[in-house]
Amino acid sequence: MDTNGTRLPKHTIQKREKNITRVKRSMEDKRFGFVMFANLEDAQRAILRLDGFVILGKKVDGFEDFFSLCNKVKMVGIRKSFWLILISVACWTVWLARNGLVFESRRVSMENLIFQSKMRALLWIRSIYNEVILQDNFWWICLNKCRIDTIISNSVASFWRPPPHGWLKFNVCGVAKEDRVGYGGVLRDKEGVARALFSSSVVANDADMVETGAIKVVLEVFLAMNWKINDSLFIELGSLVVFSWCVNKVMRQWSLQVIFASIHKDMLKARNVVFSVADEKDNELASSLVITGFNRENMFKAWW
């Protein structure tokens, strides 16, 4: 029965028991700090049904009881902190989604909930632990393998290089995979904190053409943010071919004339825009957004 005393269908009971078993197995795993990332979708679905939910034989009545139970997990140090950050992020994302549904009749798919939670968790961790380096590529595709290193101990880690003073940098990347091309980008401020991002994929086989279209998205996002600043914009590209198209009109294919005309109009609105080519390691977060973009049919854009 549920909390109202209503008898539940057999398939609903079996589904809940299956979810309970998953949570129990995760909490018994010694690598729970990393398993939590791999099972984020299961955890978030459970959070959606907190009222009357039973975990490890204990009835959970709302967020306070749920968070208290999560806080009792036998973990210490940075892993415990990461675990609590993840729980807070997942609950906060669900809360915002519920508010959007109630007050604006705006529905959010589970796919977007998971993506937003992962993105928020990554940004929250980086804002709190700026000495910690997380492997962005594993964060999206296999989080239980995501290594945690410190800047001091990690000699081969990739570092994001800030632009000159008074500039912002938008990293862009596009990758072809079979008949689809994933693309993504991230805008950071002078401290390296992400302020905007986008991720998507299209049916195509030419990554350079799609990355050119991503430049248009970059400028649209930058202009939509409407920051009242005089900062100029660095657009750092992952493709040398696309870079050559941007800086040399003669090298552009005829089929690109329309998109570059639109890009030029937005560049005039953005005032000072400069293109450069990113080092492979310097473009890691944008590359990670490309990986998650392969699983997306619709564009995801966000800024704050």
From TrEMBL:
<keyword id="KW-0472">Membrane</keyword>
<protein>
    <recommendedName>
        <fullName>RRM domain-containing protein</fullName>
    </recommendedName>
</protein>
<keyword id="KW-1133">Transmembrane helix</keyword>
<dbReference type="GO" id="GO:0003723">
    <property type="term" value="F:RNA binding"/>
</dbReference>
<dbReference type="InterPro" id="IPR012677">
    <property type="entry name" value="Nucleotide-bd_a/b_plait_sf"/>
</dbReference>
<dbReference type="Pfam" id="PF00076">
    <property type="entry name" value="RRM_1"/>
</dbReference>
<dbReference type="InterPro" id="IPR000504">
    <property type="entry name" value="RRM_dom"/>
</dbReference>
<feature type="transmembrane region" description="Helical">
    <location>
        <begin position="81"/>
        <end position="97"/>
    </location>
</feature>
<keyword id="KW-0812">Transmembrane</keyword>
<dbReference type="InterPro" id="IPR052929">
    <property type="entry name" value="RNase_H-like_EbsB-rel"/>
</dbReference>
<feature type="domain" description="RRM">
    <location>
        <begin position="27"/>
        <end position="60"/>
    </location>
</feature>
<dbReference type="InterPro" id="IPR035979">
    <property type="entry name" value="RBD_domain_sf"/>
</dbReference>
